Amino acid sequence: MKIYLGIDVGSVSTSLVLADIDNRVLAFEYLWTRGQPIQVVQEGLRSLAPQIPPDAAIGGVGVTGSARNLIGVAVGADVVKNEITAHAIAADLVMPGVQTVLEIGGQDSKIIILRHGVVVDFAMNTVCAAGTGSFLDHQAARLGIPIEDFGALALKSNNPVHIAGRCSVFAESDMVHKQQMGYSIEDIIAGLCDALVRNYLNNVGKGKEILSPVVFQGGVAANVGIKAAFEKALELEAIVPEHYHVMGALGAAILARFSMESKIESSFRGFALSELQFEAGTFTCDGCPNICEIVNLSLDGELLARWGGRCGKWEELIVQSQNILPL
Amino acid sequence: MKVAFGHMGTLTPIMEMILEDLGHEAITPNRPTRQTLALGAKHAPEFACIPFKIVLGTYLECLKLGADTLVSGGGYGPCRAGLYGELHRRILKDLGYEFDFIFFWPPLKKPFHFYKQLHKLKGHHSWVYLWRIIKKAYSKLAVLDDLEMMAQRIRPRELKHGSTSKGFEQAMDMMRQAKTGPEIASAGEEARALMQKVPFDDTRQPLKVGIIGEIYVQLEPFANYFLEEQLGHMGVEVRRSIYLTSYTRHDILSTRGDMGSRTLAMPYLAQKVGGHGQNSVGDIIRYAKNGYNGVIQLAPFSCIPEIVAKSLVPRLSKDYSIPVLTIFIDEQTGAAGIQTRLEAFVDLMDQRRSRSLLVGA
Asked: By residue range, what is the domain housing residue A115?
């Protein structure tokens, strides 16, 4: 049986998914990236390896997320895709006919508009990360509430307070102020959920036609308070899929399966790569006024790939010396 | 005089030639880099837009190379560019630099002022001579525009990654060295021939994208993260709404702007809003009517004319069924974020074209 590996390496979390040919999730790992994308992927592969069904073999690998290029080279991916396309594909297969995807992750949030199974519009947060997972984590820690209970507390509120949600720093000041005025924690948390949803809809969702069915995914979809706030603001049901927090990786696995239709053999280096010694480094080329930042990736001391330059001279050096294709 | 000017795409070799023809020493600015931007951002007001900061950085670099005169120009109307010349002058004077500042308003709007400024630059040369070198400069500009369009067409079809950009750089060098009329004519032929030698596959059907928006971030590749090249390497053919020859015809030698796109914009935006805001609205319609797969709107962060245009994008996009991606740029913009959006936008156009979510997997 052929199964497919999808990896989503984000700024905050990294997820790995094994999916079968019917796009079912057989196993997944969800880890914190901690600024070490390669190590965390190796760690994930180590824990995934024993979960592979005995008769299964990896038929292809797809990588997405902000570290997709680096990890794509390191694992030998068959397809490297941006996270918008990966999330859209996963949502469409989990919820056929989906017209809106709300995705909120660790540091970014996006909205994807689909019609008849095709992405027609999208937006990502640009200047501000208020309302993403990192901020919610920070606030939960500050209030001494486990992040898992955060959303449920919001649902207990009867009277959410108004929190200024435009900027996360000011939102925090406003929350402190409301605490000092004596509002209950439940009302403050519910107010925060409303404020973050308002901020999302005014920024990322501005000018977008949000139609049902709406799928809400990404790590923050675990927060029932935010889900309820979305449903209140949109007056639509927000469907949270079972594997909401690994949808990017699931999308990457699905993309890997499709990419293998035109490929004979997967380029995957195998699970043994979790024991290899990868090293990534950068240097600045000052050969011309472009001042490019060149990324080097080496494997057991040998240069594996190089990218980041505009003129291609560094990429060519490696092709000449090792016959490895540049990105 | 040792004269310097801001760097804006392919305008640089033209400015260099005109100044040399007038007997000045041209302090030709280098292409802007991150250092240029950092230098400009350090001395600029925080909320000035990115063209202001890059050009300020360029001026500082040129003044350090010994420039004693700066030449610039600016629009007239709601866009802040009209204020920027004076602001640049004052910031640089406050930093202790001594220089002459020659600032051009659009000639037909302030003819007397324009004449006085031109007179300073012209020196003892006759008006007939000036007319001749301007005509020559325009002929060179026309070749440069032509070469750019060739590169935009060939890049998504090239057989070897990067060969178009390499050919284009060589062609630009050739043109930069051509200074007399006959030299320009023969270098133009050679440069075109060089571009035609770049091996490409003419059977490919690349996606076509129109680039619209503010002029500086459209024309200066550094300011837009080398958008044209990035898209070309993703297999997309681009066209810009502004090329230097069309800009000269519409916005310097006329006061009316590009009436084609302004007329198209009328039902949505019936007045000028500064910069190329109204054009951006009309250009979306024009690209949609010409069968383009999408439009990318480029604008400096906080650019009012383009913000006005952007507010009409959802309606235009719906009425003309064309996807539009707006990218606002400032010194905080991350290159990775732009790349992700471009990749996703290319996927989106590809999916629309083939009506399937799984294209290009």
From this structure: 96-240
